[in-house]
């Protein structure tokens, strides 16, 4: 059975239908990419999965349970974690405090501390700046904080909303390395990306979203070879 | 010179009480961008509850030292006000979350009047004297005199403010409070129950307000249903002066305002050639408020408003 099963999901903001009945699923251990143009409804989809936005129709089943039955702040306790668009770091908390916030729901102090150390090993630049206010970091460093913070939440299903947005190629590479590393550790992931090529290359499967609908889906390799995808999203 | 030092000391006492109350305004503003104008009434309730307990104990003839009776009164007033703060948020503000800014503001003013009326129903319209239980010996510092009670007030304020700072800066609760104030929806993603944090903030601020209320009542030896209005407005001014939303700012603003006001009261006769007396001391607080709002609306230590929007 899939870890996440979405059926006929619809989301509206006031009168505007942002997501118009989509179906998709993610299996345990998969890395799945969702691509689509600006305004297609990708962020809305992620926000609905994590309970920040209420759907107007359809169903979301995560880990065998129907979402919407627990308060949204409890999702993280069930392993549903999101790195939001624009990173969502706490700019007036220090780097370390941001990481600690990721572990807010946990009480295993010793394990938390050693996992923070591990994040510092992955991102030595954060270690050097652990006492600095996160708002003073560069965009790339902030994305590292956001990724590290998500790791501290011990995700089962990690939703990443455009982790490469506005970053220099070398940082993008680093972030994608980390994404692959997290995937190898068995974390299931749904990745939303503008950088479609890179995202599909690291994914097993992908979906294409266009104005609120999923118009294509399949193995990432096939999407990479698909002419329509190449024309619209890979800039070829 | 004597009068100068004397007024600085008086200002310090007054200012530390303002600071304690200003913290309540600034904490709530920091976390939800709301001015809780009913906070002054929470302070008044703290004073009233304490007086009630203290008078009851005194009249029942228990054999306890005066300070112990006042301590018991305070220890009753603290949870009573924390509860009041909790209820205020639940009943008056939570239903308005996400509403336009004006709605909670009007609610706050309505709530403030309602609480005054409730106080009249319970305690009446007259001044209620605070039983004479505390040592009123004075100590003299550089030719100025200050009562031991006032020294106690200042010391206790410093301890409480330090304690609050430690909670906010060093504990998990404080971290969650700061995270929530910066970005409630992302804090929610981390598992923070934003409602719990907001409740905790109201309760903490109200508990400090209760203690401030007791301090005011003991310092002036009386309490009154309307006392929260003026002291609340002054403390609000202090919070704005320091930069609303900023804890250190509330402390600095409170003490500064207390000193400005005392010096003003001490010299206003000279300044106006005897035209205005020290009973006009209140104008200084409001002059400060107006000047700050005109020239530096973000306050002394506040950041730009754009940061918060
Ligand atoms: N809070 C909101 N209120 C009203 N409309 C919204 C809101 N958030 C998003 N929308 C609308 O919903 C549609 C989908 O937006 P969404 O942010 O999900 O797109 P997206 O695929 O993530 O785009 P991008 O690639 O630019 O991030 C857009 O038309 C957008 O204007
Ligand atoms: Mg988006």
UniProtKB/TrEMBL annotation, chain A:
GO terms for molecular function: ATP binding; ATP hydrolysis activity; branched-chain amino acid transmembrane transporter activity. SMART domains: AAA (SM00382). Belongs to the ABC transporter superfamily. Keywords: Amino-acid transport, ATP-binding, Cell membrane, Membrane, Nucleotide-binding, Transport. Gene3D superfamilies: P-loop containing nucleotide triphosphate hydrolases (3.40.50.300). One of its GO terms (biological process) is L-amino acid transport. This is ABC transporter ATP-binding protein. PANTHER family: HIGH-AFFINITY BRANCHED-CHAIN AMINO ACID TRANSPORT ATP-BINDING PROTEIN LIVF. InterPro entries: AAA+_ATPase, ABC_branched_ATPase_LivF/BraG, ABC_transporter-like_ATP-bd, ABC_transporter-like_CS, BCAA_Transport_ATP-bd_LivF, P-loop_NTPase. Residues 4-236 form the ABC transporter domain.
TrEMBL record, chain B:
One of its GO terms (cellular component) is plasma membrane. One of its GO terms (molecular function) is L-leucine transmembrane transporter activity. CDD domains: TM_PBP1_LivH_like. InterPro entries: ABC_transp_permease (IPR001851), BCAA_transport_permease (IPR052157). The chain crosses the membrane at residues 12-35, 68-93, 105-124, 149-168, 189-217, 283-302. It holds the Pfam family BPD_transp_2. Belongs to the binding-protein-dependent transport system permease family. LivHM subfamily. This is Branched-chain amino acid ABC transporter permease. It comes from Aquitalea palustris. The lineage of its organism: Bacteria, Pseudomonadati, Pseudomonadota, Betaproteobacteria, Neisseriales.
